[in-house]
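Q: What would this chain look like folded?
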Amino acid sequence: MAQFTRIEVANVMKETGMIPLFFNNDIELSKQVLKACYDGGARLMEFTARGDFAHEVFGELTKYAIKELPGMIMGVGSVTDAAAASLYMALGANFIVTPVLREDIAIVCNRRKVLWSPGCGTLTEIARAEELGCEIVKLFPGDIYGPQFVKGIKGPQPWTSIMPTGGVSPTYENLKEWFDAGVTCVGMGSKLISKNADGVYNLAKIESDTRAALRIIKDLRK
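A: My prediction, written as C-alpha coordinates:
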Protein backbone atom coordinates (compact mmCIF):
# COMPACT_ATOMS: atom_id res chain seq x y z
CA MET A 1 0.00 0.00 0.00
CA ALA A 2 1.32 3.44 -0.97
CA GLN A 3 2.30 5.72 1.91
CA PHE A 4 1.78 8.89 -0.14
CA THR A 5 -1.10 10.00 -2.36
CA ARG A 6 -0.49 10.76 -6.01
CA ILE A 7 -1.00 14.47 -5.35
CA GLU A 8 1.58 14.39 -2.54
CA VAL A 9 4.03 12.60 -4.83
CA ALA A 10 3.43 15.04 -7.69
CA ASN A 11 3.98 17.98 -5.34
CA VAL A 12 7.32 16.60 -4.10
CA MET A 13 8.39 15.99 -7.70
CA LYS A 14 7.59 19.61 -8.49
CA GLU A 15 9.15 20.99 -5.29
CA THR A 16 12.47 19.12 -5.44
CA GLY A 17 12.71 18.92 -9.24
CA MET A 18 14.74 15.71 -9.32
CA ILE A 19 14.34 11.95 -9.04
CA PRO A 20 17.40 9.69 -8.75
CA LEU A 21 17.12 6.41 -10.71
CA PHE A 22 18.88 3.29 -9.52
CA PHE A 23 18.92 -0.50 -9.63
CA ASN A 24 21.12 -3.09 -8.00
CA ASN A 25 20.26 -6.62 -6.95
CA ASP A 26 22.30 -6.35 -3.74
CA ILE A 27 19.90 -5.28 -0.99
CA GLU A 28 22.48 -3.91 1.45
CA LEU A 29 24.30 -1.98 -1.26
CA SER A 30 20.99 -0.61 -2.49
CA LYS A 31 20.21 0.63 1.02
CA GLN A 32 23.54 2.46 1.12
CA VAL A 33 22.91 4.15 -2.22
CA LEU A 34 19.38 5.10 -1.18
CA LYS A 35 20.65 6.61 2.06
CA ALA A 36 23.36 8.56 0.21
CA CYS A 37 20.67 10.11 -2.02
CA TYR A 38 18.49 10.81 1.01
CA ASP A 39 21.35 12.42 2.94
CA GLY A 40 21.98 14.57 -0.13
CA GLY A 41 18.42 15.87 0.07
CA ALA A 42 16.54 13.65 -2.41
CA ARG A 43 13.05 12.73 -1.29
CA LEU A 44 12.15 10.47 -4.20
CA MET A 45 13.78 7.35 -5.59
CA GLU A 46 12.84 5.51 -8.77
CA PHE A 47 13.97 1.91 -8.42
CA THR A 48 14.46 0.83 -12.03
CA ALA A 49 13.29 -2.77 -11.77
CA ARG A 50 15.28 -4.41 -14.54
CA GLY A 51 16.72 -7.50 -12.92
CA ASP A 52 15.58 -10.92 -11.73
CA PHE A 53 13.90 -10.82 -8.31
CA ALA A 54 13.91 -7.02 -8.41
CA HIS A 55 10.61 -6.98 -6.54
CA GLU A 56 12.28 -8.67 -3.56
CA VAL A 57 14.94 -5.98 -3.41
CA PHE A 58 12.35 -3.23 -3.75
CA GLY A 59 10.23 -4.67 -0.97
CA GLU A 60 13.18 -4.61 1.43
CA LEU A 61 14.21 -1.12 0.32
CA THR A 62 10.71 0.19 0.93
CA LYS A 63 10.61 -1.27 4.43
CA TYR A 64 14.00 0.30 5.11
CA ALA A 65 12.84 3.70 3.84
CA ILE A 66 9.67 3.63 5.94
CA LYS A 67 11.64 2.73 9.06
CA GLU A 68 14.84 4.74 8.63
CA LEU A 69 14.29 7.51 6.06
CA PRO A 70 11.20 9.58 6.96
CA GLY A 71 9.65 11.35 3.99
CA MET A 72 11.45 9.24 1.38
CA ILE A 73 9.02 8.41 -1.44
CA MET A 74 9.80 5.10 -3.11
CA GLY A 75 8.66 4.39 -6.66
CA VAL A 76 9.41 1.89 -9.40
CA GLY A 77 10.51 2.42 -13.00
CA SER A 78 10.82 0.22 -16.10
CA VAL A 79 7.36 -1.21 -15.41
CA THR A 80 5.94 -2.67 -18.62
CA ASP A 81 2.54 -4.15 -17.74
CA ALA A 82 -0.35 -3.90 -15.30
CA ALA A 83 0.58 -7.09 -13.44
CA ALA A 84 4.02 -5.75 -12.59
CA ALA A 85 2.54 -2.39 -11.56
CA SER A 86 0.09 -4.15 -9.23
CA LEU A 87 2.89 -6.25 -7.73
CA TYR A 88 5.02 -3.21 -6.95
CA MET A 89 2.10 -1.27 -5.53
CA ALA A 90 1.41 -4.20 -3.21
CA LEU A 91 5.05 -3.84 -2.09
CA GLY A 92 4.55 -0.16 -1.27
CA ALA A 93 5.37 1.69 -4.51
CA ASN A 94 4.17 5.29 -4.29
CA PHE A 95 4.58 5.93 -8.01
CA ILE A 96 4.99 3.87 -11.17
CA VAL A 97 7.13 4.95 -14.13
CA THR A 98 6.90 3.21 -17.49
CA PRO A 99 9.04 3.38 -20.66
CA VAL A 100 5.89 3.51 -22.84
CA LEU A 101 2.27 4.63 -22.64
CA ARG A 102 0.08 1.69 -21.58
CA GLU A 103 -3.55 2.18 -20.67
CA ASP A 104 -3.70 -1.03 -18.60
CA ILE A 105 -1.10 0.45 -16.24
CA ALA A 106 -3.05 3.72 -16.06
CA ILE A 107 -6.17 1.81 -14.99
CA VAL A 108 -4.58 -0.17 -12.15
CA CYS A 109 -2.69 2.87 -10.83
CA ASN A 110 -5.71 5.18 -11.01
CA ARG A 111 -7.80 2.59 -9.18
CA ARG A 112 -5.40 2.84 -6.25
CA LYS A 113 -4.81 6.59 -6.68
CA VAL A 114 -1.10 5.99 -7.26
CA LEU A 115 0.81 8.39 -9.50
CA TRP A 116 1.97 6.90 -12.80
CA SER A 117 4.30 8.54 -15.29
CA PRO A 118 4.41 7.00 -18.78
CA GLY A 119 7.24 7.41 -21.25
CA CYS A 120 5.94 9.47 -24.17
CA GLY A 121 7.59 10.73 -27.34
CA THR A 122 4.88 12.59 -29.24
CA LEU A 123 2.35 15.29 -28.48
CA THR A 124 -0.41 12.79 -29.26
CA GLU A 125 0.92 10.34 -26.67
CA ILE A 126 1.27 13.11 -24.10
CA ALA A 127 -2.29 14.30 -24.70
CA ARG A 128 -3.62 10.75 -24.35
CA ALA A 129 -1.66 10.22 -21.13
CA GLU A 130 -3.19 13.37 -19.69
CA GLU A 131 -6.66 12.26 -20.75
CA LEU A 132 -5.98 9.09 -18.73
CA GLY A 133 -5.15 11.16 -15.66
CA CYS A 134 -1.36 11.49 -15.87
CA GLU A 135 0.01 14.29 -13.68
CA ILE A 136 3.62 14.29 -14.90
CA VAL A 137 4.68 12.85 -18.27
CA LYS A 138 8.03 11.15 -18.67
CA LEU A 139 9.96 12.24 -21.76
CA PHE A 140 11.98 9.23 -22.78
CA PRO A 141 14.65 8.93 -23.96
CA GLY A 142 15.31 12.54 -23.03
CA ASP A 143 18.63 12.86 -24.87
CA ILE A 144 16.95 11.96 -28.17
CA TYR A 145 14.31 14.70 -27.87
CA GLY A 146 16.18 17.39 -25.93
CA PRO A 147 15.08 20.69 -24.37
CA GLN A 148 13.82 22.07 -27.70
CA PHE A 149 11.17 19.34 -27.78
CA VAL A 150 9.99 20.42 -24.33
CA LYS A 151 9.69 24.02 -25.51
CA GLY A 152 7.69 22.81 -28.49
CA ILE A 153 5.25 20.91 -26.26
CA LYS A 154 4.84 23.74 -23.77
CA GLY A 155 3.74 26.09 -26.58
CA PRO A 156 0.33 24.56 -27.32
CA GLN A 157 0.12 22.81 -23.93
CA PRO A 158 1.54 25.07 -21.20
CA TRP A 159 -0.26 22.96 -18.57
CA THR A 160 1.76 19.85 -19.38
CA SER A 161 4.26 18.75 -16.72
CA ILE A 162 7.29 17.00 -18.20
CA MET A 163 10.05 14.89 -16.64
CA PRO A 164 12.91 14.00 -19.00
CA THR A 165 14.87 10.86 -18.20
CA GLY A 166 18.03 9.98 -20.08
CA GLY A 167 20.47 12.65 -21.18
CA VAL A 168 20.25 14.56 -17.89
CA SER A 169 23.39 15.22 -15.87
CA PRO A 170 23.97 17.05 -12.56
CA THR A 171 25.80 19.99 -14.14
CA TYR A 172 24.66 23.59 -14.14
CA GLU A 173 24.76 23.84 -17.93
CA ASN A 174 22.67 20.72 -18.54
CA LEU A 175 20.11 21.43 -15.84
CA LYS A 176 19.77 25.03 -16.98
CA GLU A 177 18.89 23.89 -20.50
CA TRP A 178 16.15 21.59 -19.26
CA PHE A 179 14.62 23.93 -16.68
CA ASP A 180 14.80 26.94 -18.99
CA ALA A 181 12.82 24.82 -21.47
CA GLY A 182 10.10 24.35 -18.85
CA VAL A 183 10.50 20.87 -17.35
CA THR A 184 8.83 20.16 -14.02
CA CYS A 185 11.50 17.76 -12.81
CA VAL A 186 14.24 15.51 -14.15
CA GLY A 187 15.21 11.88 -13.68
CA MET A 188 18.90 11.05 -13.29
CA GLY A 189 20.52 7.65 -13.27
CA SER A 190 24.15 6.73 -13.88
CA LYS A 191 25.32 10.33 -14.22
CA LEU A 192 24.23 10.91 -10.63
CA ILE A 193 24.62 7.44 -9.10
CA SER A 194 28.30 7.24 -9.94
CA LYS A 195 30.93 4.54 -9.54
CA ASN A 196 34.67 4.70 -9.05
CA ALA A 197 37.04 3.38 -11.70
CA ASP A 198 36.98 -0.01 -9.95
CA GLY A 199 33.19 -0.23 -10.35
CA VAL A 200 32.41 0.46 -6.69
CA TYR A 201 29.69 3.01 -5.93
CA ASN A 202 31.13 6.25 -4.57
CA LEU A 203 28.62 6.95 -1.81
CA ALA A 204 30.19 10.23 -0.71
CA LYS A 205 30.12 11.53 -4.28
CA ILE A 206 26.53 10.39 -4.77
CA GLU A 207 25.53 12.35 -1.67
CA SER A 208 27.46 15.47 -2.65
CA ASP A 209 26.32 15.38 -6.30
CA THR A 210 22.70 14.96 -5.19
CA ARG A 211 22.98 17.92 -2.85
CA ALA A 212 24.66 20.05 -5.52
CA ALA A 213 22.11 19.18 -8.21
CA LEU A 214 19.18 20.02 -5.93
CA ARG A 215 20.84 23.34 -5.08
CA ILE A 216 21.33 24.15 -8.77
CA ILE A 217 17.68 23.36 -9.51
CA LYS A 218 16.54 25.55 -6.64
CA ASP A 219 18.71 28.43 -7.85
CA LEU A 220 17.50 28.05 -11.44
CA ARG A 221 13.91 28.43 -10.30
CA LYS A 222 14.45 31.72 -8.49
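The radius of gyration is 16 Å.
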